[in-house]
From TrEMBL:
GO molecular function terms noted in the UniProt entry: chromatin binding
Name assigned to this protein: TTF1 factor
GO CC, any one term: nucleolus
BP GO annotations: termination of RNA polymerase I transcription
PROSITE patterns reported in the protein's UniProt record: HTH_MYB, MYB_LIKE
C-alpha cells in the first residue's frame, strides 16, 4: 500500500502514527490494519497501556495453540529463536507457514509489536530472577563498557531479560544514594516536580494566558495532577542522586504527609482497620485484574491519601501474606487475603 494512504488509514486507530518511522508504518499496515478494521466493526477500540489479565490469558492461549499446531517444543524457542541457532531455519519456516503474526495477535485489539513484546516478557525464562547480586552488578557494568547498549547481547551473557538488564543499568550507572533523603535532595525533588507540572500546565493553556500572566501566576490545579502520569525519568535526571522509583516513592510520602496534615493513618489499630477495609473493598469489587481497580476511590479506606500510597500498602500485604503470589492471578490473591488473612486480622483487632 502507498505509505501516505497507510498513514491516513492507521491514524484513525493510532493518533500518534505520524511520529512513527516509515518502516514501522509499513509493518503495521501489513500486520495491524485489517485487524483494526475488524475490531472497529465489532465496536472494539484499539488499546494501549498495561495489559489486562484477560489479554495475558489470550496471549498464553495463542502461544500454546501455535506450539500445538507446529510441534515447536517450547515458547522460548518460538519467541527467542536466535538462542537456538541449530533450529532457527526450521522454526522460522514453521512461523511463516502457519502465520505466526496473525495467530499471536488473535483476539487482542493492540498493535502486533506490543503484543509480541508482551509475549516475550511473559515467556522469557530469564525474567523475574530476583534481586541482582553485587557480583552481577559489577558484571553488568563491565559488559556495558564492552558492548554499549546492545541489551540483547548483554542479556544473553547475564542470563537475564533485555528489559531487566537495561533497567538495572539505568539504576546503577551513576552514584545513586540509597540512604535517607537529605534536605537538599528533597528540595531538588520538589522543585523538579513543580517544574514538570508547571511546564505541562503552561502547554495546556498556552493560548489562553499572556506570557506575563504565565510567569506570575500561582499554580491552581486538580490534585490528581500532582501524582498521576508524572515523567519520573525526567524527574530522576533533575534530582541527580536518586533512581526514578525512589523519587516516585518519596514524592508519594511528601504528598501523603501534606494531605493528611501529618496524621499517622497507618499505625496501631488504624493500620489493622485499614488492612481489613482494603481487603473487604477489593473482595466486594469482584474484578479480575488490578487495572480494573479504581485505586482513587479506594483511598478513603486508609484516609485522604494518594492512590499510589494505597497501591503500595496492597503490594506489601500480598507479598507478606500470600504464598507464591507471583503465580496467582489478581482475583486469586484477593480471594486468599479474604478467606485466610482477613479472619486473622479481625481477631488481632
Amino acid at each position: 500500500a502507498d505509505l501516505d494512504t497507510a498513514k491516513q488509514e492507521l491514524e484513525e486507530f493510532i493518533p500518534h502514527v505520524r511520529n512513527i518511522s516509515d518502516s514501522s508504518i509499513r509493518k503495521m499496515a501489513g500486520r495491524d490494519l485489517v485487524r483494526f478494521k475488524e475490531f472497529k466493526k465489532q465496536g472494539i477500540a484499539v488499546k494501549f497501556g498495561r495489559f489486562s489479565q484477560k489479554e495475558n490469558n489470550q496471549i498464553r492461549k495463542n502461544v500454546e495453540e501455535f506450539l500445538s499446531i507446529t510441534g515447536i517444543d517450547s515458547a522460548e524457542k518460538l519467541l527467542f529463536t536466535s538462542r537456538y541457532p541449530e533450529d532457527k531455519e526450521t522454526i522460522s519456516r514453521l512461523k511463516a507457514e502457519h502465520l505466526f503474526c496473525e495467530k499471536l495477535s488473535e483476539g487482542i485489539p493492540r498493535p502486533w509489536r506490543l503484543i509480541y513484546y508482551r509475549a516475550r516478557k511473559m515467556f522469557d525464562p530469564n525474567n523475574y530472577k530476583g534481586r541482582y547480586t553485587k557480583e552481577e552488578k559489577e558484571k553488568l557494568k563491565k559488559y556495558h563498557a564492552m558492548h554499549g547498549n546492545d541489551w540483547k547481547k548483554i542479556s544473553e551473557m547475564m542470563s537475564r531479560s533485555n528489559l531487566s538488564v537495561a533497567m538495572k543499568y539505568s539504576e546503577i550507572k551513576s552514584a545513586i544514594n540509597y540512604g535517607p533523603w537529605s534536605k537538599e535532595e528533597t528540595q531538588k525533588l520538589m522543585h523538579a516536580v513543580e517544574e514538570v507540572i508547571r511546564k505541562r500546565m503552561e502547554m495546556e493553556d498556552a493560548n489562553s494566558l499572556s506570557s506575563l500572566e504565565k510567569s506570575n501566576r500561582d499554580l491552581s490545579i486538580d490534585r490528581e495532577k500532582l501524582y498521576q502520569r508524572l515523567p519520573w525519568t525526567e524527574i530522576e535526571a533533575k534530582v541527580g542522586t536518586r533512581y526514578w522509583r525512589q523519587c516516585k516513592q518519596k514524592w508519594t510520602t511528601i504528598l501523603t504527609k501534606k494531605m493528611t496534615e501529618g496524621q499517622q493513618l497507618y499505625r496501631g489499630t488504624k493500620r489493622l482497620e485499614a488492612k481489613i477495609n482494603l481487603i473487604k473493598r477489593l473482595y466486594e469489587m469482584k474484578v479480575e485484574d488490578a487495572n480494573e481497580v479504581n485505586w482513587e476511590e479506594l483511598s478513603n479506606t486508609i484516609g485522604d491519601v494518594p492512590r499510589a500510597y494505597v497501591q503500595a500498602k496492597f503490594y506489601k500485604l500480598k507479598v507478606s501474606c500470600v504464598p507464591s503470589w507471583q503465580k496467582k492471578t489478581f482475583s486469586e490473591i484477593v480471594d486468599y487475603l479474604f478467606e485466610k488473612k482477613l479472619p486473622e486480622l479481625e481477631q488481632q483487632l
